[in-house]
Amino acid sequence: MLKITGLSAGYSGLPVLKDVSLHIKAGDFAAIVGPNGAGKTTLFKTISGTVPAMQGKIEFNGQDLLAIKPSARPHLGIAHVPEGRQVFPSLTVFENLQMGAYTQAGQTAWEDSIEKIFSWFPVLAQRSQAQAGALSGGQQQMLAIARGIASAPKLLMFDEPSMGLSPVIADEIFERIVTIHRDIGLTVLLVEQRVAEALHYASRGYVLESGRVVLEGSPQELKRNDRVRRAYLGM
Fold first, then answer.
1. What pTM does this model have?
2. Given this model, what pLDDT does residue 235 score?
């Protein structure tokens, strides 16, 4: 589904990503872990098109993604739940969800999507007419996820969904993501600093350090790796 080959990207001519390659198959739950400043968010922004690629290739379902305008990429089925949630605070919960459903697929699937969203996130149904800015941090993260789902995506990218949340709420968010992945077979690409949790839920993992993929494999393989155990799992 998503094939990245030799990708370099960054800001003002300075590369943050350096020769990154990864392959995400349809239905995968892939996790990208690594320290702050490794380039994880830059990778997502390059896939979305808000950061230009300097070299390399990104293919999505066989199409050259770098030849497609950033504004057109959501219509291909790519949704990005950004770091820090970034809901529209002055709009209601329901209006935020409507904003997410602006793609053609989102419009077509709206009734089915909203039914599923409210079953996964009952609190959003209860607070559908509340302003998004009045929600708790955990509820705003649920809304950001639901807004991404409203576009009826084929690939949903989550950037640090646990950021700023208590461990209990973060665990609840992870469980909802897993449920969504399982219920509709959605392809998930997760960036997360809580490495143990990310590898627990994922079917494949990548370790990104200093802009390069330094390790990849199944979660079991990565958990057995001494470098991962020392640097990320506290063992």
1. 0.92
2. 59
